[in-house]
Amino acid sequence: MKINVYVETQAMELNKPFTYLCNEQVYVGCRVKVPFGYKDCIGIVTEINVTSSVQNLKEVKEVIDRTPLLNEELMNLAKWMSNYYVAPLISCYKTMLPPALKPSSTYASIVYESWAFKKESQMPLTKHQQELIQSISFPIKASEFRKICKSCAKALIDKGYVEIRQLEKNPKLVSSSVDSQFSLTKQQKDAIDKITQSSQTYFLLHGVTGSGKTEVFLQLASQALQQGKQVLILVPEIGLTPMMIERVSARFGSDIAIYHSQLNNQEKYSQYKLVKENKVKIVVGTRSSIFMPFSNLGYILMDEEHDSSYKQDNSPRYQTKDILIQRARVHHCKVVMASATPSLEAYARAYKGNYELVSLNQRVNQKMPDIHLIDMRKEKSMNGLSSTLIQKIEQCLSRKEQVILLLNRRGYLPVVKCSTCNEVMTCPDCGIALTYHKDSQSLICHCCGRSFYFKSECPKCHGHQFYQLGMGTEKLEEKISELFPEARIIRMDADSTRKKGAHEKILKEFETRGDILIGTQMVAKGLDFARVTCVGILQADLAMVRNDFSSSEIAYQLLEQASGRAGRSDKAGNVYIQTFEPDHFVMKCVLSHNYLSFFQQEMKYRHLGHYPPYVYLCTLIYIHKDLNKAFEIANKEKEFLNSLKVLGPIEIHSRKDGKRVRLVIKSNTKEELNQKIKECFTYHSSLKTNVKLDINMYPNRLED
Length: 704
Ligand code: ADP
Ligand code: ZN
Description:
single chain; alpha/beta; 7-stranded parallel sheet; 6-stranded parallel sheet; 19 helices; 30 strands; binds adenosine-5'-diphosphate; binds zinc ion
């Protein structure tokens, strides 16, 4: 039989199938090992029983899977993705599968465990052996079985009473906790009725922070389960996962699969299998769980719809929302996207009626937190902390309530500048200032992640004095503990949460013992702690100064979400925002919790500037060691794309793999943009250049 195979290779030029001979039984969606060039590669079978007039076809070396890894729906989805995002098909297959199953020559193997099973046997046993075999509840892990009595264990195996079998390691990840019971608010009830009774497919659940959106999710999920259907609950990357898992498992027991980036390969694989074998009905997971092999979805529930982690930032650069629309179509299920601060795009769609808008405009406790802007041009401040904020923290602590402080910058010092020779330490790859991390005694590039040991000595003049410009979370923690030596302070940022499970641990610690939680944007997301009544936001203008069409949107989301952590239960919440621009429209909208006003004003800017959601964007990034080469190709392709509006080329931050030059392409229709970018890609291939092209369809923000 002749079959078509997409072979694992990064080269986009090879985005086409190759035909092989296969003498074994094989299906579409299985992995095969095939000879390719000088080596063996892994590929995915996309077609069987093909006809080909090519002579001397090579033969498949091994059929890896007996049954298809990807069913028809997912095979079609991969094709759709490849076309929609102008990405190699094989990269789409890779993205869709858990690491242990990826069609990749370095694919991780599946981990097995030995288990001891009881068997019938006629062989005589000693009294001791008899007692032993009766006292053990089989099956038991082989290692534990041997621990009980090594010599007896061996005897029981030899005599055929016990058999050792290899099972796939199957980690249990969910532990159950107590469910909270309350009667729904009128708004929650209405929202649920609206969603269940409507004939629409897509819903935007716009609920202010603390309005009980999660409870709406759980009720909808429960309805789907009663109809025997599956439910997918999507959460942003890592941050919110522990809380959502806890609530879902408290309600529905531990029969759920979870899926996020902190799981190891084996854990991912076992969770994937739970879904594939229909052993669980609910999946809680981050963006890649949208590719789970569901058979009968009843709801896709997306929490914090606006979150940037729903877009993957390497090829294929998919947006989870696009994918879920494809899946909902096949499964005929409803989709609910929830947020207190919807993305402009989603709200615009709801405005136009593409999504049905469902609102929860009141908190469960009826009280929105009070927002106070602290004008840093007028305030006395020390180490970036205003006297007002210090005083409010003090008062909050004296009431035995909790404080959250947001500073969206990790590390100790954002810039390390020698005060003798004025040298600034920069990343050799990216050219941007390195951040000093006191905890790890290192200088870290926040662009590429490279890290250098720091001896507190200037490499140029060997001076030992440095300017103390600016502040990150590490330094804030230090200053706050000097000011409040009695307080229990906990820091949550990318550095303190690197270890698996650290996130959960930090949150538990804060909930049970903590007084002040300091952190980056992580602390703005979803946290629901009843005793938090004071939220302080430092350097609130940081987000707004980015040179990007989406910076106001991101700033608004961050500030409103952070504010939303205060006063979620019976005690009133207060939020203190330190800003140099209290008159900025973003600040004004946050002050009055007025999303609609923010939406309308920001839409005007987008309209004037011809930015999404009024136009469709694509960015093309050209990468080469030689900047001129990158520019040369970028200019050629700009010429090629001259029927569209093209901005650039401009140089942006370089990376390890070279200098980077960017074009921004705008179009009024998706179809036109997609068509042109595909043509441009073909054109790029025809240039036979070694300038790498990185395509980002529909970016949410521009890279810098
Ligand atoms: P959101 O996701 O909208 O910010 P949550 O779903 O986290 O809000 O709910 C906020 C808090 O209110 C949670 O502690 C939740 O347990 C509680 N809650 C939700 N619905 C109700 C209700 N109907 N009655 C009382 N408390 C509720
Ligand atoms: Zn760097």
